[in-house]
Task: inverse folding
């Protein structure tokens, strides 16, 4: 069969199946590898320390072994780097003692590997280093002509030069950068969706055609100044995702004054299914009746579940190890 036929057949296979197919022959491997590396998604828990190679030697600083192997492969085989369309790295670094080596690895990935991914369309880097390194070092500049989706987390470095280098960007996620961005009027002019803290969103949305917005934060509060910025986009917001922050009727009332044209709304209400459902929970839901009436075009409402139920069940099973099933007043079972 011609390579084009093999490519069309292999395109319907899963990643695991493609890995096995690549072992059949050199020809099949050449076709399968390009499909395998089209989407690179790595989620890795970085250990406290790396295991030693020889007995008796001191432990080495922690390194993301899976990430390093993948990056080495892409650096050694340019034809595979050319095939990458999605490159997502997510590190969990909570147990890392010394992040100095991780910082060097992250900077090398951004500075030397990422620019070689010439056809990259989606880039998601969650290094988890912002809380370990203060102040955050500058992010090495890179430029990817085909990039349409960018998500950065755990980096904390100034991001304006990166955004300025990608005017065709359409989707942007900045989950843990509380500093408002200082963008010029002609930066990211085609942005269609954004996710970040309210201060960031208020700085990004004015003058840009963002129609899908997600807000994140620890406080159930958005200032009037930020709300005014959210309403200053060049296109009306159609979708608002508030599941990344605790929502109260007061917050929704404030939002409705500026964004009454929202068509789809996703919120996270505390204690929605717990034992307080019959008291505070039902009152909270009842209070939404008047608030929701202010959203004139609302077509969809998503009440996202919370982790409160899980935390309660964990505590209860710790006190009562024989417990196997919990049914909350809302009929949700754990």
Result:
């Amino acid at each position: 069969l011609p390579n084009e036929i093999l490519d069309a057949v292999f395109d319907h296979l899963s990643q695991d199946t493609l890995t096995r197919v690549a072992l059949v022959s050199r020809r099949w491997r050449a076709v399968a590898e390009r499909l395998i590396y089209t989407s690179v998604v790595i989620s890795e828990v970085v250990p406290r320390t790396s295991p030693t190679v020889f007995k008796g030697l001191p432990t080495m600083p922690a390194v993301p072994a899976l990430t390093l192997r993948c990056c080495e492969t892409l650096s050694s085989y340019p034809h595979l780097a050319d095939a990458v369309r999605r490159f997502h790295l997510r590190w969990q670094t909570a147990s890392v003692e010394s992040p100095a080596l991780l910082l060097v690895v992250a900077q090398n990935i951004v500075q030397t590997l990422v620019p070689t991914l010439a056809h990259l369309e989606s880039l998601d880097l969650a290094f988890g280093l912002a809380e370990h390194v203060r102040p955050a070092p500058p992010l090495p500049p890179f430029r990817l002509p085909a990039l349409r989706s960018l998500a950065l987390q755990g980096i904390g470095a100034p991001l304006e030069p990166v955004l300025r280098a990608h005017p065709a960007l359409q989707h942007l996620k900045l989950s843990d950068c509380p500093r408002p961005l200082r963008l010029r009027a002609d930066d990211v002019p085609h942005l269609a969706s954004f996710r970040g803290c309210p201060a960031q969103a208020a700085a990004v949305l004015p003058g840009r055609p963002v129609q899908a917005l997600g807000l994140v934060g620890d406080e159930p509060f958005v200032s009037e100044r930020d709300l005014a910025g959210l309403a200053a986009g060049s296109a009306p917001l159609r979708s608002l995702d508030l599941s990344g922050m605790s929502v109260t009727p007061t917050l929704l009332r404030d939002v409705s004054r500026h964004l009454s044209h929202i068509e789809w709304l996703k919120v996270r209400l505390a204690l929605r299914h717990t034992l307080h459902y019959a008291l505070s929970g039902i009152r909270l839901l009842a209070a939404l009746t008047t608030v929701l009436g202010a959203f004139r075009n609302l077509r969809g409402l998503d009440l996202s579940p919370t982790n409160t139920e899980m935390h309660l069940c964990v505590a209860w099973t710790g006190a009562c190890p024989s417990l196997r099933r919990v049914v909350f007043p809302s009929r949700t079972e754990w």
